[in-house]
Amino acid sequence: MQHDTFLLITGGSRGIGAAVARQAAAAGWHVAINYTRDATAAEAVAAQVRALGRQALTLQADVADEAQVQAMFTRLDAAGRLGGLVNNAGVVDVAQRVDEMSLARWRRMFDINVFGTMLCARAAVQRLSTRHGGTGGAIVNVSSVAARLGAPGQYVDYAAAKGAVDVFTLGLARELATEGVRVNAVRPGVIVTDIHASGGQPERAQQMAPQIPMQRPGEADEVAAAIVWLLSDAASYTTGALMDVTGGR
Predict the structure, then answer these.
(1) Is 179's pLDDT higher than 50?
(2) pLDDT digit string (tens) for 141-178?
């Protein structure tokens, strides 16, 4: 990996994204941290990256907004060269059955989790692919084991959105296989992050422990380690992989 390149992490101000930022900086990446609202949290992660001797940028953008995504990549271009992308930005919602859900909820779920991932991936491919004059790179999409389990009675719409991310990962990986760009996904299980609180279940990770073969939820750093490996040259022959980090679920 060239050390003059930036890794862009969407949703990089907390949870898995922040853990990736720290581990990627330790591995030699300069890091661009995308956030939607919490500039203070993003700057705190940037400070941790700089403390590891790497450059850090914070980039505000709603990944569901095409114009904001394009502007974010333009700002990154002015700072350096893109070398990798982690599509980590995502949302859940309160636990509901499908017959209780609104179309507005579904639109938000797909706008951020699916279209946000696709918009950022498209912009990254335009910079990374040898077809576009790039020198290659890696994309890692953060999916969820919900894509395999379906999340009944909780958020089937989230599971369906992450299923779309999985298929997008497979297709894009094959599309770019001869253009120097590897595309993989990591599918976390139940991880201790703030996302559960945003869905109204702040204690969900601990409450789910008995249903997990390892009898504990995962930590953000355990997911980040898999992501940073997939970004690295050690994963040079890995593309189109869906890697479960789930404690056995």
Answers:
(1) yes
(2) 999 999 999 999 999 999 999 999 999 999 999 999 99
How far apart are the C-alpha atoms of 68 and 71, rounded to whole Å?
Answer: 5
pLDDT of 198 reads 65
What is the C-alpha end-to-end distance of the chain, expressed in Å? Answer: 33
Q: Is 215 left (phi over 0), alpha (psi -120 to 50) or beta?
A: left
Q: Which amino acid is at 17?
A: G
Q: How far apart (Å, rounded) are the C-alpha atoms in residues 88 and 226?
A: 13
Is the pLDDT reported for residue 1 higher than 50? no
Contact 162/154 with Cβ under 8 angstroms? no
pLDDT of residue 2: 45
Active site residues: 158
The percentage of residues in the chain with a pLDDT greater than 90, rounded to a whole number, is 92
Rounded Cα–Cα distance for residues 10 and 119 (Å): 11
pTM: 0.96
Q: Where are the domains of the chain?
A: 5-245
Calpha distance 160→107 (Å, rounded): 12
Q: Specify the fold of 5-245.
A: Rossmann fold (3.40.50)
